[in-house]
Design a protein that fits this description.
The complex is a heterotrimer. Chain A is mostly helical. Chain A contains 10 helices and no strands. Chain A has one domain (2-16, 44-58, 68-223): Fumarate Reductase Cytochrome B subunit (Up-down Bundle), CATH 1.20.950. Chain A is 73% helix and 0% strand. Chain A is globular and about 65 Å long. Chain B is α/β, with parallel strands linked by helices. Chain B folds into 2 domains: 8-235, NADH:ubiquinone oxidoreductase-like, 20kDa subunit (Rossmann fold, 3-Layer(aba) Sandwich), CATH 3.40.50.700; 237-344, Cytochrome-c3 hydrogenase, C-terminal domain (Cytochrome-c3 Hydrogenase, Chain A, domain 2). Chain B is 40% helix and 10% strand. In chain B, strand 5 (142-143) and strand 6 form a beta hairpin. Chain B is globular. Chain B starts with 14 loop residues before the first helix and ends with a helix. Chain C is mainly α. Helices cover 50% and strands 6% of the residues of chain C. Chain C is built from 23 helices and 8 strands. Chain C has helices at 36-50, 53-61, 67-71, 73-78, 85-88, 90-99, 104-109, 118-130, 137-141, 148-161, 167-179, 187-201, 220-225, 228-240, 256-260, 263-279, 291-299, 301-305, 316-326, 355-362, 393-410, 420-433, 442-448; strands spanning 214-216, 244-245, 284-287, 312-315, 337-341, 366-367, 414-417, 440-441. In chain C, the strands form 2 sheets. A 4-stranded parallel beta sheet of chain C has the order 2-1-3-4. In chain C, helix 1 (36-50) packs antiparallel against helix 10 (148-161). Classes of the chains: A mainly alpha, B alpha/beta, C mainly alpha.
């Protein structure tokens, strides 16, 4: 079986399967832990509004901006760039539409009335470059900044690697650079599969836990009337 | 064709004489040789050398064995609406065995074959189309009571070189598709000790065979091959890299169905499953039927037919980027497994916690 | 101060001048004669006891961005990365991943995280205690919304049970548990003080009423160092016409069980107050000017009690604000410029941000807010038990410079706060730096400006 057939076939199949098993294992394993009921008298009648912390925590308070702006801005540059390439490039869109159709049994356009938008390869490449540049800057910061250097571990560096690999290999594939196209696209798919397999076991899980931790703090603080 | 080609005495005249006898001027012949050379990315001087060599070339013995095939390759190679120089060249090899085209049949044809092999031992070219059946010791595909497999192993011994025409001969092709009931194999799976050129395609482009033969006649060797045994001159680039619709791919303009506005505007067929990016062949440049068109130009995505196992790589209409992620049932099962494992982990954690609190 | 029967290896010398110990040696304080393996075992047991869904969610979410360091006054004034807040709970997180998380089995089987050792816990003692006031700024800056401060408090549970608390903090906590007050304000001492204060100031200070609507409490810091607070409380209660009392079976609002991390002592200390309130049928329990006392009872009390409290819990600043609103607390105008230092546990962690300001508004002061203020204000550096730890003095003074600059920058005449531990920290800092500003108590300011009464 050649590399592309493997990457497009059993490689993806098992990577997605492991991804689903791992993510749900991690989430269920945390959500089903003992939750302590808070018996204190809440200051606010309902704590559910505390969930707005999920949105408000997306940017630091003014007093905190000075110390965190570098990481926040670069973090967003990476996330926006990465998401743009992932979600607005037709070859990727076709994959997600296939998943959508396979899981929900209905075509995306039929359900929502509009097709999933996508942009030209050149534009996607630009955003990919932005994401890669941001990741490199963030890695340098992680190595050079004493705080980050102290608290960083294998997970931080390996997660960085499995995140930048699909971006770089994607750009190389788009540009047909360095190897025959079949090899490039196979390597790109394999890099995505590596990311999927590593995902549940490292800090990439913050994709899901960000909602849970912000929401938890938001609700806990809301009932105390201490939301900021 | 041409029973004339079978007469022994014709084997002695050169190609140049033969063409001159049919009214092809030297100039026309030179022009042809140069265009053939440029087709193979050889310099202009090579065209002249080719013309001279071809003119003097003796017609080599060529044995064409059809194995497990559909005859499409023969159709492609010989299909011409008018006599073309290529077909004349084709005539000019001494095609000593070709079942579809030869007049003889039965014992006569067998005799012709054996004679040709004996007379030209070590020098004849073996052209194979169709895959080699190996199941039941080759019984799935026999000619005259003998298996293709035995024919191949026998004939290969005296061959100067072997040309595998079409995807079946090159890689096993459609007969090899899952579950491969006849045990179909490529020529190169059976013969290991002779130079083999693969000319894949389902069917291949006629000019490719002509070019390879011309190269052989001119230089006495086979042209430069890629890792899959294909002549680089014709299989060195992907359809995608030469496709006239490439700008649409880059701009992000794709046809979504076979008859939508995009399709009618001639937009890229990626979304309709075109395998152009991963298929090496000359379709986008040489095209078919004397440069008339090729599948993409006619509105259908490339099937990737010059690549190994193209039939087993999933639907022709599944875009390249849509890898096989599984299905609802698999993901549902995976989700259930994940939740169960997580619940088990949480339960174990709770138990541990209880034990500690109690043991306090 | 009354003698304690607590036998301590290092004598408690809270009265000795600060900085009298030159070049303190690195000290890993340990309590009890316990083998190291047993200490680790107890630490781990008590770490695991505290793991639950919220703590797990928090510990799973950290992406090592390091932003929390930017919020922490200890890091801001030293630039030492070890003070990064999430780093302070590293052994706790390590234990979580290894013993309790969804993939804990893998962590143990493949030794992806090593088991916590006693050396690691010793090394972390100063990070969990000396350099954390549980002020909660880190929790606010965290982009993932992790309540890091709460994790430090939880980590202290394990350290306390392992006997790895900085010694002075342990000693005052033990006094609190055994004598009823961390600073020697035993019931007898409290009773004595009430008597002479009532006498001296000619004010009624009810004690041990059988039934009352309002149960007032005090902190030992006030009883021993700022006894005027007792008088102030009495005056204000009288002014608003409250049916109130102190009770000797439940008056100590500080909770060094909470600060040291001894969960059992924390419960004991809170239950005294709860039982006293129930005993006198109080509808309201008023907490004094103390920061962690608010968090301890207002937010944690019911959970220790096991059911909702049958009475309201308010901070004295909230009590005053309510009565300002109802018109019962009428105040004279103070024509001075004031800046308010927000006690972390009342404001940022407690949610009572506006109450002190409503009282200041009623006092007619010109309020000049610090930068940043309210829930984002800087910590004074003395909370969380840090002010008791003498070896942390140098660090605390570095932090205090932040506060001095903040307050000086407002140009206000009077700094005011509503926590006596902050007040104590400010007094100590003022003495050390010979600063020209003295911290004031909101409670006392109100008591001095009650309309229709002498100051």
């Amino acid at each position: 079986m050649d590399l592309l057939t493997f990457a497009r076939g059993p490689g993806m199949y098992w990577a997605v399967t492991i991804f689903v098993i791992g993510v749900l294992w991690k989430l269920a394993g945390v959500i089903l832990l003992r939750a302590k009921r808070d018996l204190s008298e809440a200051r606010k009648p309902s704590a559910w509004t505390g969930l707005r912390a999920i949105l408000t925590r997306s940017w630091p308070r003014r007093a905190f901006v000075h110390g965190t702006a570098f990481s926040e801005v670069l973090g967003y540059a990476f996330h926006v760039g990465f998401l743009f390439t992932l979600v607005f490039y037709l070859p990727h869109v076709l994959f997600f539409e296939d998943v959508f159709k396979g899981l929900l049994g209905v075509n995306f356009q039929r359900l929502f009335g509009v097709p999933w938008p996508y942009f030209s390869g050149g534009m996607v490449n630009f955003f990919g470059a932005v994401a890669v540049a941001a990741l490199i800057a963030l890695l340098v910061h992680r190595i050079v900044n004493p705080v980050k250097r102290l608290i960083s571990n294998f997970d931080d560096y390996f997660s960085w690697l499995v995140t930048i690999a699909p971006l770089v290999t994607g750009m190389l594939t788009y540009g047909h650079v360095g190897a025959p196209y079949q090899t490039l696209i196979a390597v790109h798919l394999l890099s995505v599969e590596l990311l999927l397999v590593w995902f549940p076991f490292g800090k990439l899980m913050h994709t899901f836990t960000v909602f849970m931790s912000r929401g938890t703090q938001g609700m806990q603080f809301e009932r105390k009337g201490a939301t900021l | 064709m041409k029973g004339e080609a079978m007469r022994n005495d014709d084997r002695e005249i050169t190609l140049g004489e033969y063409l001159a006898a049919r009214g092809v001027s030297r100039r026309a012949f030179l022009k042809f040789a140069c265009s053939l050379a440029s087709l193979m990315a050889l310099p202009p001087s090579a065209g002249v050398a080719m013309a001279e060599a071809l003119a003097k070339a003796k017609r080599p013995s060529v044995l064409w064995f059809p194995f497990q095939e559909c005859t499409g390759c023969t159709e492609s190679i010989t299909r011409s609406h008018e006599p073309t120089i290529e077909s004349m060249i084709f005539d000019m090899i001494s095609l000593d065995y070709q079942e579809t085209l030869m007049a003889a049949a039965g014992h006569q044809s067998e005799a012709a074959r054996e004679q040709a092999m004996k007379d030209n031992y070590g020098k004849y070219l073996l052209l194979i189309d169709g895959s080699v059946a190996t199941g039941l010791e080759g019984a799935y595909s026999c000619i005259g009571g003998q298996t293709n497999l035995s024919w191949l192993t026998e004939a290969a011994k005296g061959a100067a070189a072997i040309i595998a025409i079409g995807s079946c001969a090159s890689y096993g092709g459609i007969p090899k598709a899952n579950p491969n009931p006849t045990g179909a194999r490529a020529v190169s799976d059976i013969v290991k000790d002779k130079p083999i050129v693969n000319i894949p395609g389902c069917p291949p482009i006629p000019a490719v065979l002509t070019g390879v033969l011309a190269h052989f006649l001119t230089f006495g060797s086979l042209p430069e091959l890629d890792p899959l045994g294909r002549p680089k001159a014709f299989y060195g680039e992907t359809i995608h890299d030469r496709c006239y619709r490439r700008p649409f791919y880059d701009q992000g303009r794709f046809a979504k169905t076979f008859d939508d506005e995009g399709a009618r505007n001639g937009w890229c067929l990626y979304e309709l499953g075109c395998k152009g990016p991963v298929t090496y062949n000359a379709c986008a440049t040489i095209k078919w039927n004397a440069g008339t068109s090729f599948p993409i130009q006619s509105g259908h995505g490339c099937l990737g037919c010059s690549e190994p196992d193209f039939w087993d790589k999933g639907s022709f209409y599944r875009p390249l980027s849509v890898a096989h992620w599984g299905d609802k049932a698999t993901l549902g099962g995976a989700a259930a497994v994940g939740v169960a494992l997580g619940a088990a982990a949480a339960l174990a954690a709770r138990r541990r916690q209880d034990k500690i609190v109690k043991g306090d | 101060m009354s003698a304690s029967d607590v036998n301590t290896e290092h004598p408690l010398e809270l009265e000795t001048p600060r900085f009298s110990v030159k070049k303190p040696a690195v000290r890993y304080d340990k309590q009890g004669e316990v083998p190291d393996a047993e200490r680790v075992k107890r630490a781990m047991q008590n770490f695991v006891r505290d793991f639950g869904r919220s703590a797990a969610i928090y510990m799973e979410s950290c992406v090592h961005c390091g932003n929390c360091a930017e919020a922490c006054h200890f890091y801001a004034t030293t630039n030492d990365p070890k003070y990064t807040p999430i780093w302070k709970i590293e052994p706790f997180k390590q234990a979580y991943k290894r013993e309790y998380g969804p993939f804990a089995w893998f962590y143990r089987a493949l030794n992806l995280k090593s088991a916590v050792t006693v050396e690691r816990l010793e090394e972390w003692q100063e990070l969990i205690y000396d350099s954390c006031t549980v002020c909660g700024r880190c929790s606010l800056i965290c982009p993932m919304g992790i309540d890091i401060a709460s994790l430090v408090s939880l980590a202290r549970h394990g350290m306390a049970k392992a006997g790895l608390v900085p010694h002075e903090l342990w000693a005052v906590a033990e006094r609190g548990e055994k004598e009823g007050s961390p600073l020697g304000a035993t019931p007898k001492v409290f009773k004595d003080r009430i008597e002479w204060l009532a006498d001296d100031y000619e004010v009624d200070i009810p004690l041990d009423k059988a039934k009352a609507d309002v149960l007032c409490t005090m902190s030992s810091i006030e009883i021993m160092k700022y006894p005027e607070s007792i008088v102030a409380t009495a005056k204000i209660m009288k002014h608003v016409g409250a049916n109130w009392t102190f009770r000797l079976d439940g008056y100590e609002a500080t909770n060094f069980g909470l600060l040291s991390g001894n969960a059992d002592w924390q419960r004991d200390m809170s239950m005294k107050l709860i039982d006293a309130a129930i005993a006198c049928g109080a509808k309201t329990l008023v907490l004094p000017e103390c920061g962690h006392a608010y968090g301890a009872l207002r937010w944690m009390g019911a959970n220790l009690y096991g059911k909702p409290l049958p009475f309201r819990v308010v901070h004295i600043a909230e009590f005053m604000a309510e009565h300002v609103k109802s018109g019962k607390l009428r105040l004279k105008k103070v024509g001075k410029s004031v800046t308010f230092h927000d006690p972390c546990q009342i404001s940022r962690r407690g949610g009572a941000i506006e109450a002190p300001r409503e009282v200041l508004a009623a006092l007619g002061v010109e309020l000049r807010e610090m930068e940043p203020t309210k829930g984002l204000n800087w910590c004074c550096g003395g909370g969380g038990g840090v002010v008791t730890i003498h070896r942390a003095d140098a660090l605390r003074y570095k932090v205090f410079q932040l506060k001095m600059n903040q307050i000086d920058d407002t140009g206000a005449e009077l700094p005011v706060t509503s926590c006596s531990n902050c007040r104590q920290t400010f007094d100590d800092g003022q003495a050390h730096f010979k600063w020209d500003k003295t911290m004031n108590s909101l409670l006392e300011m109100v008591a001095h400006n009650l309309e229709g009464e002498a100051a």
